[in-house]
Design brief:
Layout lengths: L1 H42 L8 E5 L6 E5 L7 E9 L2 E4 L4 E4 L3 E6 L4 E5 L4 E8 H8 L5 H8 L3 E4 L6 H16 L6 H19 L12 H16 L6 H8 L3 H12 L3 H19 L4 H7 L5 H12 L3 H13 L13
Antiparallel strand pairs: 1-8, 2-7, 3-6, 3-8, 4-5, 4-7, 6-9
Helix pairs in contact: 1-12, 2-5, 4-5, 6-8, 9-12, 10-11
């Protein structure tokens, strides 16, 4: 009898243990689901309703298109004037466009686009999320950022079919903005990259940063370009100065005089900005981000990140996911990156 009771007790305890284990597995799996839902909240986020575009066909009347700043997210306006004439007006000035011209500007004020009778144009607004990923991390990224921080106008010369390429790029944005097909953001980003390249090649010398005449500004431009290429290699200020052919003290004086920041702060800001973008726009692990940014281990990366932003990389990512779940827009932009 005692043996039978012992067998039943043993079976009962094993059954309870199995149920407990299954319960633990369920809890573990549920926690995993919640974790990846939080991460995907910003990884798979679609462009917002700030993405819109319209093709202005030639008519016998003037066409008007207006833009104004958004409280929820920063965005840009792009326009291609194919034929006719147009004027872009804000509270302080009026800008005349002649064909074929590209206009690109952050929407930091109210603007009115007036396309005169007979004119043809494509006008669009692009949310910051798409602009940032389109800029990329190549050698031209620093120049693109500077161009995008102010209104830029470029009248295209038809070299190598550039006008046709511009029309195709804007038409693609206009087509993709009207639908939510798979690959929408990829198509828009590819078109934006082409537009950015045209701006870099065609903006007048008075607008482009690399056409400044004094040696100090040219050295700063070279430093910025070097920084874009080398910050992931964890170069020191001395290495940058050596590559530029100047002393670290000279580089320090140039940066503090013209940018009000030391070279080490600029290097740190660029590294932290890149880390924040990867934490916000991807689901890759913190270890992989640490490796990509050239840190010797994740602990060193976390300490570096926390010293600059007052929170750990994991806390930054979790807080960002929470903000997005609450439909708050994270304050990430490159406006302060010179």
């Amino acid at each position: 009898m005692h043996m039978i009771c012992a067998v039943h007790a043993d079976r009962s305890s094993r059954h309870i243990l199995k149920r407990a284990k299954r319960s633990q597995i369920h809890v573990y799996l549920w926690n995993l689901i919640v974790y990846f839902r939080k991460k995907s909240a910003f990884v798979s986020r679609k462009p917002t309703n700030l993405l819109r575009a319209e093709k202005i066909e030639p008519t016998i009347r003037e066409r008007v298109w207006s833009t104004s700043p958004s409280e929820s997210e920063r965005h840009w306006t792009g326009a291609l004037l194919v034929s006719g004439t147009a004027h872009i007006e804000d509270a302080h000035e009026t800008l005349a466009l002649a064909p074929v011209s590209i206009f690109l500007a952050p929407v930091d004020k109210e603007r009115t686009f007036r396309i005169q009778a007979g004119g043809e144009a494509v006008i669009c607004t692009i949310p910051e999320q798409v602009v940032l990923t389109s800029i990329g991390r190549g050698p031209d990224s620093a120049d693109i950022r500077r161009v995008l921080e102010r209104p830029a106008v470029s009248q295209l010369l038809d070299k190598g079919g550039m006008v046709e390429q511009a029309e195709r790029a804007f038409d693609t944005i206009q087509t993709e903005a009207r639908q939510e097909a798979p690959g929408q953001q990829t198509m828009i980003e590819a078109s934006l990259k082409m537009i950015f390249g045209m701006l870099l090649r065609n903006i007048p010398e008075t607008v482009m940063p690399q056409h400044v005449s004094d040696r100090g500004s040219n050295l700063l431009l070279r430093f910025r370009q070097l920084l874009e290429n080398r910050f992931r290699d964890r170069w020191t200020v001395a290495q940058y100065a050596s590559e530029l052919g100047i002393s670290p003290d000279r580089l320090h004086d140039l940066c503090t005089e013209k940018l009000s920041k030391s070279p080490s702060v600029l290097i740190r800001d660029r590294t932290i900005y890149e880390a924040q973008m990867m934490l916000a726009r991807s689901s890759i692990s913190i270890k992989e981000i640490s490796d990509r940014l050239g840190f010797r281990d994740p602990a060193h990366f976390s300490k570096y990140f926390k010293s600059a932003s007052a929170e750990s990389p994991r806390m930054f990512r979790d807080n960002l996911a929470q903000q997005l779940q609450q439909k708050e827009t994270p304050a990430l932009n490159f406006a302060d990156w010179p």
